[in-house]
């Protein structure tokens, strides 16, 4: 019996990562008017941000239908495998609830669903670490315990150009405290206890990048690190160059955030996702 890892598209795992680790990804949905797109499936990051910049209305996002999780869970159970699913924070999406309902409907005894309390590649790293342990032949309980032990070590640090998208999308959380700051300031945000929280503000893009590097270094040793961006590849490459020398043992992928997270951060988001060692 093999343990299969399931996550959702906000984990920002690319196809190569999914296939190498044997992870199944269930996509969230993004709606522009009458058109519905599957996150990371029907829209590339560039396509999405191009639409976002020209759309008169903010797109709507929604968790996967319970039936999509049920389909994945049934497929794995029919093959005789057990499942550990880890999803985006329940405080910013109903995805965890949908996966929980599906697990109860299919086979609660052999399927465990974990609330990551995070998003983007911080969630992706939790799924990858679970998959790594599962590939050694570890059982479901051990794999679930490993992921749960890493949840408090997952971090997201990001600089965004504006809080407008978070506010309009209803996901601003405690970062509301940053509203009303001068136009030239770039808000710095994190995910704390599963919801968006403020880290301060920087005067312009250059200072924002400096501040992100400083905040990252405060956390000491890391076991996993990625640079996240939304239609900001050049800045992401510069950010990776700034920190690569401090983490010689780590591969530092550039992760383009998908349509769901991009709906709330807006274009130009840049930052780090990582696990503290």
Describe the SSE topology.
Elements: E1 3-8, H1 15-21, E2 23-26, E3 29-32, E4 35-38, H2 45-54, E5 60-62, H3 66-78, E6 82-87, H4 95-106, E7 111-115, H5 120-134, H6 140-150, E8 154-159, H7 164-168, E9 185-192, E10 195-203, H8 204-218, E11 222-229, H9 233-244, E12 254-256, H10 259-265, E13 270-276
Helix pairs in contact: 3-4, 5-6
Tell me what you see in this structure.
This protein is an alpha/beta fold. The protein is 39% helix and 26% strand. The protein contains ten helices and 13 strands.
How would you briefly describe this protein structure?
It is built from ten helices and 13 strands. The chain has 277 residues and is of the alpha/beta class. It folds into two domains: 140 residues, Rossmann fold; 124 residues, Hypothetical Protein Tm841, Chain: A,domain 3 (2-Layer Sandwich).
Overview features:
alpha/beta; six-stranded mixed beta sheet; single chain; Hypothetical Protein Tm841, Chain: A,domain 3; four-stranded parallel beta sheet; 2 domains; 277 residues; Rossmann fold
Please, how many helices? 10
Uncertain stretches of 5 or more adjacent residues: none
What oligomeric assembly is this protein in?
single chain
Shape: globular
- In helices, the fraction of residues equals 25-40%
SSE pattern: EHEEEHEHEHEHHEHEEHEHEHE
Estimate the strand proportion: 25-35%
Q: Which topology of the largest domain does CATH recognise? A: Rossmann fold
């Amino acid at each position: 019996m093999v343990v299969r890892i399931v996550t959702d598209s906000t984990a920002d795992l690319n196809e190569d990562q999914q296939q190498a680790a044997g992870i199944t990804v269930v996509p969230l949905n993004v709606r522009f008017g009458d058109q519905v797109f599957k996150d990371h499936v029907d829209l590339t990051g560039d396509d999405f941000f191009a639409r976002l910049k020209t759309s008169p209305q903010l797109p709507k996002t929604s968790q996967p239908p319970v039936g999509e999780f049920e389909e994945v869970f049934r497929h794995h159970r029919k093959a005789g495998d057990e499942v550990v699913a880890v999803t985006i924070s329940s405080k910013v999406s109903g995805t965890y609830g949908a996966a929980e309902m599906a697990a109860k409907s299919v086979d609660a005894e052999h399927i465990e669903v974990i609330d990551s309390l995070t998003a983007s590649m911080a969630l992706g790293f939790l799924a990858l670490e679970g998959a790594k342990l599962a590939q050694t032949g570890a059982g479901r309980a051990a794999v679930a315990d490993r992921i749960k032990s890493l949840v408090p070590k997952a971090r997201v640090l990001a600089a965004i150009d504006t809080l407008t998208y978070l506010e309009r999308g209803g996901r601003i959380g405690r970062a509301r405290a940053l509203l009303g700051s001068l136009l030239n300031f770039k808000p710095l945000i994190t995910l704390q206890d599963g919801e968006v929280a403020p880290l301060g503000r920087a005067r312009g893009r250059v200072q924002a990048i400096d501040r992100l590097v400083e905040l990252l270094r405060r956390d000491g040793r890391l076991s996993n690190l990625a640079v996240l961006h939304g239609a900001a590849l050049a800045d992401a490459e510069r950010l990776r160059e700034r920190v690569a020398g401090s983490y010689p043992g780590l591969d530092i992928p550039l992760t383009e955030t998908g349509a769901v997270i991009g709906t709330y951060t807006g274009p130009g988001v840049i930052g780090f996702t990582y696990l503290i060692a």
